[in-house]
Amino acid sequence: MQIQGFHDLKFEAVREAFADLFNDPQERGAALCIQIAGETVVDVWAGSADKDREHAWHTDTLVNLFSCTKTFTAVTALQLVEEGKLALDVPVARYWPEFAAAGKESITLRQLLSHRAGLPALREPMPAAALYEWQTMVDALAAQAPWWTPGEGHGYAAITYGWLLGELIRRADGRSAGQSIVARTANPLGLDFHIGLADEEFYRVAHVARSKGNMGDAAVQRVMKVMMSEPDSMTTRAFNNPASIMTSTNKPEWRRMEQPAANGHGNARSLAGFYSGLLDGSLLEAEMLEQLTREHSLGEDKTLLTRTRLGLGCMLDQPEVSNATFGLGPKAFGHPGAGGSVGFADPERDVAFGFVTNTLGPYVLMDPRAQKLAKVVAQCL
Prior knowledge:
- The chain contains twelve helices and 13 strands.
- It is α+β, with helices and mostly antiparallel strands.
């Protein structure tokens, strides 16, 4: 496999570990970017971007980053807090009056950001087309009762996170959620990151598909068992209501829409650059970065049915939990995306890490491919 890009010779072992991924015949395309103190030391890519393996992955190939998008969204909300346009601990309903319905009058932005608001799924079955109708989805969430008492425990809001936080951002900032997030996070840092992709950029988006025959870990098997056997459960609805959530990744309307929980499009470079921007203070003041990365939720996740440890819109490292460690340092924070892409930072070593792939692995938290690469990075430091 021809590995493109460059790397500092000190990180030759990282390049080799990246090349080793392609020993798996199912691996189609991927990219890896490592920055240390803001300086790029690894920027490599390889493989194919399309489903038929006819088109190579290029330096500017984009891919759907899924939940890696959530931290960009959280940082935007925290910037609005810094500006006094939002507040972490006042009721969301102050900014969004309709949200007070059905027992949600005291839910705060902090609870939304840390997945403690009890709103990871919609109870009311939604038609497939509703996925692309912003107003339909935010109205449905505003009308819904929480699944549990807000603030008591946490459950990952896989896709509702985007509408809940996006609507608050829209009301506070005056721009659409995607425009606001990109203008506040990607543009100042020159990142090739998009929420609401222009049609003229579609030609460089990698086609995403699952690998076959890999059963994943125990955590994903628990979730799959529930989704197969309990269609009305909260976990099933979190990923499957509307049902189009699971089947839309490669569709033009998915790329065009602004769903800031799950449909950011970018590359490994944009993930590493974003986390470098957090480490160097470009995106948030130190006090707000401390809020972002402070533990807010720990323990059994009501949605993911595994142990999660969360800050405000980021996942925090659990070194002793095999599916929940980024694989670098215990202070690491960041966010995996469905299927294997991940962006994170290790503040102790000043490392920012971005890995993206269009070959989806079946894991609910960390993909072993990225963990293995991060461990090799640690050995090179």
